[in-house]
């Protein structure tokens, strides 16, 4: 696991730190970020499938 970095002052922090030792802002956690990226990935897959189905299913004008 990489060392956490403060999103505000961009300084590396110790592994056990919950807040930045320089500016005091809370440090990000990896778990919500990964969950958000996974949700975004599945949303993009679902959108692509939906578009493909609509291209086949909708009537075409000649």
What distinguishing features does this structure have?
45% helix, 62 residues, rod-shaped, single chain, 1 helix, mainly alpha
Unreliable spans are none
Order of helices and strands: H
Bulk shape = rod-shaped
Spatial extent as radius of gyration: 21 Å
By helix and strand content, what is the structural category?
mainly alpha
Rounded mean pLDDT score: 86
**Sheet of most strands:** none
Count of distinct strands? 0
Share in β-strands: under 5%
The oligomeric status of these chains comes to: single chain
How much helix, percentage-wise, in residues?
40-55%
Q: How far do the termini sit from each other?
A: 58 Å
Number of helices in the DSSP assignment: 1
Structure explained in plain terms:
The protein is 45% helix and 0% strand. It is built from one helix and no strands.
Strand-helix topology:
Elements: H1 30-57
A few lines on this structure:
The chain is mostly helical. The protein has one helix spanning 30-57.
